[in-house]
Amino acid sequence: MSFGYQVLGFGSGGAGEVVAATGGTISAILSSTYNMHVFTSGGTFNTGGYTTFDFLVVAGGGSGGPNAYAGGGGAGGAIYFTSETLTAATDYTVVVGAGADPQGITGSDSRFGSYTLVKGGGGGGAYGGGHSSWTRGLTGGSGGGSGAGSWSYSGSSGGYGTADQGNNGGAAWGQGDSSYGGGGGGKGGAATGSYGNIGGTGFDGTLIFGTGVGDSGHFASGGSGSKGSNHAGVVTSPIGGGGNGGSMAGGSTLAQAGADGTGGGGGNGQGAGSDGGDGIVIVRYAL
Question: What does R_g of the chain's alpha carbons equal in angstroms?
């Protein structure tokens, strides 16, 4: 029979005190029952005297497509690992993927130690310009939304997400000035809306990490696609850092970038895409 254990320190802290884990930005959460280590860039996590951990790994989000009626970026892939046994007093390398630069580019991957590589979100597809021309969003952790053709045509689907990391982007709808670009997929679901133009839902980590990280404790929602000049206003993405989509109508409805530290996909609007959000790695353990 095997038993979990904690390595005890005998230095200045006195006998019986557990050796502290190190790395990232450290805080006590959930009524100080857990410690949380947050990495918004690469680094090293040392387990100290602890051996049982939960960790969330989120890759960088894809950016919105490069022109009018283009798709939103897919969220960076996200995996939540629970009750994993790590070796005490050991370093683990943390890689945090960057969000993609515009336009329609896939985000960078994230990783914790030798665990599964978490893939960056797919970039949004471009507007095709022809009556039956469209560009599928790129494959990624979650897939990017497809760009529309110019008239009476919708793409067959958005970019494909990766199993257990995210979901598919939305298919665009081409109808002249009433066109919609597809939304990017999110960790919690594929793109939604009547025309598939709203980014997919993200990962709710509020009961695990609280509300002080990510987008009020949510991560990896998809960026929304743009809409044509017959439809003014914003296409609002779900909570989780995905960027809102904009409109080709006059006004200030530009695309919104994905939020850093969430892996949210970038939105598309006013003929341009926006950046995907940088990823994040969070480690927690019981005190």
Answer: 20
Give CA–CA dist 218/214, Å, rounded: 6
Structure-derived torsion over alpha carbons of residues 107, 243, 44, 49, reported in degrees to the nearest 10? -130
* Average confidence score pLDDT of the chain: 89
What spatial distance separates the first Cα and last Cα of the chain, rounded to whole Å? 24
Rounded to two decimals, what is the model's pTM?
A: 0.92
Show Cβ contacts of residue 109 under 8 Å, excluding neighbours closer than 6 positions: 59, 60, 77, 95, 97, 117, 118, 119, 120
* pLDDT, tens digit (0-9, with 9 covering 90-100), for 129-170: 655 556 889 999 999 999 887 654 555 679 999 999 999 999
User: Are 187 and 142 within 8 A, CB to CB?
Assistant: yes
Strand arrangement of the beta sheet that strand 52-58 belongs to: 25-29, 34-39, 280-286, 52-58, 78-85
Q: What are 137's two structure tokens? A: 């969003």
Q: Characterise 267 by phi-psi region: left (phi > 0), alpha (psi -120 to 50), beta (else).
A: beta
> Residue 153: what pLDDT?
56
DSSP E strand stretches across 165-279: 173-174, 203-204, 218-219, 268-269, 272-273
Domain that residue 190 falls in? 1-287
How many domains does the chain fold into?
1
**Total residue count of the chain as it appears in this document:** 287
Least confidently predicted of 18-27, 177-186, 198-207:
177-186
Tokens describing residue 219: 């991560």
Three-state secondary structure call for residue 81:
strand
Least confident of 26-40, 44-58, 107-121, 221-235: 221-235
CA dihedral 77, 78, 81, 86 (to 10 degrees): 60
Angstrom distance (rounded) from CA 76 to CA 162: 10
| Cα distance between residue 217 and residue 200, in whole Å | 16
